[in-house]
Each structure stands twice: as structure tokens, then as C-alpha cells.
Amino acid sequence: MEGRMVERKHIIRTERLCKEFPAGRRQIGVLHDIDLHIYPREFTIIYGPSGSGKSTLLNTLLGLEPPTRGKVFVRGRDLFKMADDQRAEFRNRNYGVVYQQPYWVKSLNVLENVSLPLLLRGESLKFARGRAMYSIEQVGLERFAKYAPTQLSGGQQQKVSLARALVTDPSVIVADEPTGNLDTASSNEVIEMFMDLIQRLGRTVVMVTHELRFLEYAHRAISIRDGKIEGEFGKSEIKNLVKDLKAIGIK
Ligand SMILES: Nc1ncnc2c1ncn2[C@@H]1O[C@H](COP(=O)(O)OP(=O)(O)OP(=O)(O)O)[C@@H](O)[C@H]1O
Ligand SMILES: [Mg+2]
């Protein structure tokens, strides 16, 4: 009972997660004994230098990249104990994903692209389109539903990717440098949308970013270096961290 209660507290938890990639005849360790906890209804930011293993970690949390050792639990389920198709379905049901680059099916318009995750899960075209339109309205781009995604600005495209990530009504949104290609105003809008998802809809957001100015929005910040968790900060520690960063001129 005790164990189950502890489990409930986290929506995602990893246990001594290790990932190695083959490099010639050797193996290169990219993640080392990562014990990560993501709490529901929180905005968690993961940051760290390029090559430190952030994207690899996210891909493992998503069930896309099997760990060499260790475990990933999502909503109490051991991700890599599932069969591949079960894991894919679990991902489709629980996760929405946003990357730095939006990936479009170029022959499809905005509405059709946003419908895809629902069609992949076997929903009817009518249902998928209705939900997709609602999702596009949520990001304020209904006017562009019939456009080709590439006709939109970078910021608008990223909002459409967010609409696509949200169309399945996922409990967790995972974002890998979602503002990496955006101007300041569009970046801020994306972060505001994340905050709204958490505060109004009780969703959980995990974001990798290089932009430390977003730390002040986060409930929890995790710094990764050389494939290890270097530090984990709660709200009050983040406040001090942000102060220190401002003092040394990082905005
Ligand atoms: N499929 C792969 N095969 C071999 N090595 C890989 C693979 N994917 C990642 N790596 C290596 O793992 C390390 C971590 O990569 P990862 O993409 O996770 O870093 P990152 O922290 O996301 O970096 P960035 O901030 O530049 O996106 C790098 O050294 C990378 O070369
Ligand atoms: Mg990366």
C-alpha cells in the first residue's frame, strides 16, 4: 500500500536509467543512473549543455528509446515491460509531443495534420476533424485551418504543433526545445500556453530548453550534465537560481 501511494505521487519516474550507444566496437554511456521524478500538474524544465543527454532522456520517457538498463514508469506502468504496440498506443493516449522543428505531412493542410494522431488511433474522420478544429481554435488559428502548414510563420507553425500534440487530450506534454526557432514574442506565447494547460486543465509539462529565462515559470528545474542529474530545484530554489543568473547577466 505504502509503495503504491509513493508511486501515485509521480506521473513519471525513472529508476537508475542508463543509456549507452554503440560507437564502433565500444559503447558510449549517454545517461548514467538517472532517477528522475516528474510530478503531475507541474511545469518541469530540463536544461543542460548540448550533448548532455536531454533529448535521449526525453525519448526514453516517451518510450521511443529503450534504456540499456533501468526502468521508466509512467502513471505507474513499466513502459518497457509493455509489448511494442502496447507501448505505442500508451504513448498515443498519454503523451503529446512538441519538437523544435514541426514535422508536417506536406500534402495535408493544417486541419488534416492536426487530425492525424486521432486517425492513427482509429477514430473516425468526422470525430478527428471536429476535435482537430477545436484544438486549432484553442491556439487561436482557426482562420488557417485550410492552409498548408508551411504557409504559416514559424510561431504559428509551432502553435499548430501544439494543437496537434493536444488533440488526443494527453495528460503529459513533452517538449524538446519547442521555442528553439522562435522569436521572443512567439516563444513567450508558447510558454503562456503551457502554463494555461497546467493551471486550467491540470496537465503536466516537461520541457527541455536552453532559454534559462523560462526557469522562473517552472515548478521544478532539473539540470543535466554529462548524462547525470547535476541538480534538482524546487520553486524557491529556482527563485534564487534566477536571481543568480540575472546577476551574472543571463536573461
Ligand atoms: N542514436 C544515437 N546513436 C549514437 N549516439 C547518440 C544517438 N543519439 C544521441 N547520441 C549521443 O548521445 C549524446 C547525447 O545526445 P542528446 O541528443 O541526448 O543531447 P542533448 O542534451 O539533447 O543535446 P542538444 O542540447 O544539442 O540537443 C551525444 O553525444 C550524442 O552524440
Ligand atoms: Mg537535444
Automatic annotation (TrEMBL):
The keyword Nucleotide-binding applies. PROSITE patterns: ABC_TRANSPORTER_1, ABC_TRANSPORTER_2. Residues 12-251 form the ABC transporter domain. InterPro entries: AAA+_ATPase, ABC_transporter-like_ATP-bd, ABC_transporter-like_CS, ABC_transpr_LolD-like, MacB-like_ATP-bd, P-loop_NTPase. It comes from candidate division CPR3 bacterium 4484_211. This is ABC transporter domain-containing protein. One of its GO terms (cellular component) is plasma membrane. One of its GO terms (molecular function) is transmembrane transporter activity. CDD domains: ABC_MJ0796_LolCDE_FtsE (cd03255). Pfam families: ABC_tran. Keywords: ATP-binding, Nucleotide-binding, Transport.
